[in-house]
Design goal:
mainly beta; 3-stranded antiparallel sheet; 1 helix
């Protein structure tokens, strides 16, 4: 499962959540500080792609 990053506008904290792609499309992750989802904002995060080809 991918690790998605979020930002809580209420707490002003950034946090990550392990969610399936389907879960990520359907809902926002709950903030670990205030336990709300209505103030969550999706953030773009880095990703790593592995290939079998050497560069």
């Amino acid at each position: 499962m991918p690790d998605y990053e979020f930002y809580c506008r209420r707490c002003k904290k950034q946090y990550a959540a392990w969610m399936s792609v389907k879960e990520h499309d359907e809902r926002l992750a709950e903030c670990p500080e205030c336990h709300r989802t209505d103030q969550a904002e999706k953030r773009l995060s880095d990703f790593f792609a592995r290939t079998s080809r050497k560069s």
